[in-house]
Specification:
The chain is of the alpha+beta class and 205 residues long. Helices cover 25% and strands 30% of the residues. It has 4 helices and 8 strands; from the N terminus they run H-H-H-E-E-E-E-H-E-E-E-E. The strands form 2 sheets. Strands 1, 2, 3 and 4 form a 4-stranded antiparallel beta sheet that branches. Strands 5-6-7-8 form a 4-stranded antiparallel beta sheet, covered by helices on one side. A hairpin with a 6-residue loop joins strand 6 and strand 7. Helix 2 (41-55) packs across helix 3 (57-63). Mean pLDDT is 88; it is low at 8-12 and 14-26.
Length: 205
């Protein structure tokens, strides 16, 4: 049986569908199992703003995505997590962690971990120094060859509050387990400018 709708009925039907569509789009966690989500949308809205202030809106939309299932409520605080990945630089595949209070504001005395400094510095997220160039910089600055291949890692440094290339040379190593001893030299390199931020000796006794 065919049902003919009046123009007014058609308009109401279209309006209702549009409202449902808009509501669906505004819910960030829709489609996920709600019993697995521990952090409410309004907290993510606050942490989104915090990240956008540091990286810019376009960069945020392109490279940073909320990890709803890994974000947790813990001891009256929220651990809000994001994935930060740049296909332009295949070594950039990192995690962002922001600890907030129950209102979504940064928890007292805590620092956000893993948010790049895109808008705080010129070319702040142009990570033009790749692993090969980081090794070259180590050679140019006389980092010792050591007794085994250098450990080279792109990572977040809490001390420098930025992403770095961390190059570790091991010059001495013996023992194992609780008796393990080693020493060497490490270098921290700015992945944007290639500047050596720190070069120092390290020891494990």
């Amino acid at each position: 049986m065919n049902i003919k709708l009046t123009p007014l009925a058609k308009l109401l039907a279209v309006t209702a569908c549009a409202i449902l569509f808009i509501d669906a789009c505004s819910c960030k966690t829709c489609g996920l199992k709600t019993d697995s989500i521990e952090v409410p949308d309004f907290v993510f809205e606050q942490t989104d703003k915090l990240i956008v202030e540091r990286v810019g809106k376009d960069f945020f939309k392109k490279y940073i995505h909320a990890d709803y299932l890994a974000s947790k409520k813990k001891r009256g605080k929220y651990e809000v997590r994001y994935n930060f990945r740049m296909l332009d630089y295949n070594f950039v595949d990192e995690k962002i962690l922001i600890i907030t209070d129950t209102t979504g504001n940064l928890y007292q005395n805590s620092k956000a971990i893993g948010i790049p400094v895109c808008v705080l510095e010129d070319n702040g997220c142009d990570f033009v120094v790749d692993k090969e160039r980081a090794i070259e910089i180590g050679v140019e600055n006389n980092l010792p060859e050591g007794i085994k291949e250098w450990a080279v890692e792109f990572r977040w440094s809490e001390a420098a509050e930025r992403y770095i290339w961390h190059v570790i040379a091991t010059t001495r190593e013996f023992g194992e387990g609780e008796s393990y001893k080693a020493s060497g030299e490490e270098m921290m390199i700015n992945p944007v400018t290639g500047e050596v931020l720190k070069q120092r000796k390290w020891n494990i006794f």
